[in-house]
Design brief:
Elements (H helix, E strand, L loop, with lengths): L7 E3 L2 E3 L3 E3 L14 H12 L4 E8 L11 E2 L6 H13 L3 E7 L19 H7 L7 E2 L13 E2 L2 H21 L3 E6 L4 H6 L14 H18 L6 E6 L10 H13 L4 E5 L21 H11 L2 E5 L5 H9 L5 E4 L1 H5 L3 H8 L14 H16 L6
Parallel strand pairs: 3-4, 3-13, 4-5, 4-6, 6-9, 7-8, 9-10, 10-11, 11-12, 12-13
Antiparallel strand pairs: 1-2
Helix pairs in contact: 1-2, 2-4, 4-6, 6-7, 7-8
Amino acid sequence: MANLFSSLQLRGVSIRNRIAISAMCMYSADEGMASDFHLAHYGRFGLGGAGLVMIEATAVLPEGRISHGDLGLWSDRQIEPLARIVRMLKAQGATVGIQLCHGGRKANRQRPWHGNGPVGNEDQALRGEAVWPLKAPSALAFGAGYQVPEPATYRDMTDIREAFVAAVARADRAGFDLIELHAAHGFLLHSFMSPVTNRRSDAYAGSFEGRHRYVLEVVGDMRAAWPRERPMFVRVSAQDGVEGGRTLTDTVAFARVLKAAGVDVIDCSSGGLAGHSASTSRDAPGYGFQIPYAEAVRSEAGIATMAVGLITEPELANETIVQGRADLVAIGRQALFDPNWPLHAEARLGVVDAANPYASWPVQYGWWLNGRHRTLASLPSRRD
């Protein structure tokens, strides 16, 4: 029976345990370029024992960035800074993925600490951050005060699809083990799939098949460009959470089609169409609240899933795997709080060898910590 510390084989890639670090935007790139901050930030998770480290939402075009601080893979110049991170993580035994994204009508936003709203004149004056035209399936703004996007033409859609494919080729050159397509949280591809945001009257709208057509074209092109021996994930909003939006039933049907198209794992989030993703909502209903989405997709579509969303305790993460509710659990903000969460989970779940409790830690740390452990064990309790 699989557990949190069982390995997972996906095509030709073996992940050392079932713990993934969820893709989390850091809004700290300069013209899409990864920096020393990113190397240190992601390196902590490799040292901390995660099986899979997913690099944050990475724009395939400059105008597809969620913010001016997003990572990018629209230029060959951006390959080596990411490859440096990949090499470091692999040296620590982690599997490394990258999430490719186009922000659509939610692009061109302020960094959260600058207001988290639409970029405007003040951002231009203070930080030189200009506004760029947005593309979306329909001319519907994300919210009051937000820029109205231009409806994507067939030429636009072709250009964006080709940009995803070009980013896949660059991800290959950077050495990534797997790729993830971001089709959730109200960004471009999600907005094509939802009847709430797709008001087109062409072949890319209307029925379930029409609304999902463009995403499936992107998936097909990406899968063809990505090596067959390496896996591909798709992140979805399992339900929109707004009236008239996509439902879990729609997501299960979509997952079946994705499986037939060669996708290996469905990363199950929710929301984001009319606000932030559900995992950042003040009204989130409880710990592990999105696990049932991963469970339903896994059971009903017969495809591997990744569960995410307020999974903070090792016991819940382990139960999710043991009970067959998901194949991977993704840790997000809890990993920011404790980059060593996987190693601490191993100890808490009793997986470690009592005589050598730090055997799984990087050898540079384990040597010191095992010595400290023996010293502490020889001392009287501080309560004595």
